[in-house]
């Protein structure tokens, strides 16, 4: 690879002679969700804290850690809720045990399946090909910076999306002394500094693509049109379409050139800012990152306001998802039908972790009873769908990032409490309606009577009759229930009796199946 030194004050002459103008004023661009990209973002929820905890367990000599220690390090591990609940949510990854049979300090260790994945992940990080790719990404990031240096604290924010190993300061930086070096120590005050400029790597992804297309006849300084992909249902007015067509015809200024002389609110500056964001997201392995990460970097580069404006004005290039409690900026062309276009070994490994996270062990599965928990599962899916729709309401407004998960949990709990009270009132109403209105053919009353008769049948299924304390010989239904798990029938009946009225009605009628 050929390296040359570069003067920081150098800038291309063609960029200085561009006419500066702005044609789009106060754009009103409506946000439209992209369910495919939202799913790609949402499926990685809790993956990062899970891998943080996995790395902590692996680093210990005993390969295990007391739960109390994990609780103390919850913030640094980025665990979103109670560590014990987080651990028990993923039994295929974490194993809770009592060392030496002493029930005082429970410990956590990795399951054999998780250890196998960790070993394969370690091989990826140790491969020479992967190290070279990581070094190239870091070098490109440094060349985009006008000062050719970036604080380690900012790289820490981008480390996950750059695909850097946790100890990159010790494993990657020393192996590429011609690329970069750390100045000022390896703490948060340290800086990663460029050593040599590379013309070969100082070519953006979209420029390479244009050069490979021989029919385009592209030369440095010509215009390049960015790929545009709008969400289904997006409507563009004539004013916006006209502006976008003219904007695409503007000359393309490389993100590796210094274009700070351009007026901040000009269309030329806007296209250069889009070029910088476009290249940054292409450098990242998953072609996405949290909005905060880009704004932290943008503030250091002096481009924070330009980044925010570019994200708002170009929904066909960048997509903002709020599915995991924060805004995630996604490069649209990096995904197709919700899947990452580029096949990367690290992303394949992360997908395998996600698959293992979603596996539930057999011993933790509830035993299914005929007519048992199917309705409860349906209601859970319905509740999750409702929660997702609530999340959509906040996506049309651009502002500071927020985490609304606690508020949603509180609202869900209040709603559940109200539903339970309504269910209890409805049961008292059923008894009164059955006694006073036996001759009515009203549909609601008939449904309530069916609910009461189903309760009668359930009591018969567990071996007793209403109003009698004498036990009865178990019926055929209870015999079958005992074969499937014994006391689960009683639990199921209790769950049904506490269900709200709307859920109770939809339970299957056991009289037809007995």
TrEMBL record:
InterPro entries referenced in this protein's UniProt entry, alphabetically: PORR_domain (IPR021099), PORR_fam (IPR045040)
Segments forming domain PORR: 32-359
Compositional bias segments (type: Basic and acidic residues): 433-447, 454-479
Protein name: PORR domain-containing protein
Biased composition (Polar residues): 489-500
Source domain of life: Eukaryota
Any one Pfam family match given in the protein's UniProt record, by short name: PORR
Region of interest called Disordered, as start-end residue ranges on this chain: 1-20, 364-514
Molecular function as annotated in GO: RNA binding
Native organism taxonomy: Eukaryota, Viridiplantae, Streptophyta, Embryophyta, Tracheophyta
Positions with biased composition (Acidic residues): 389-406
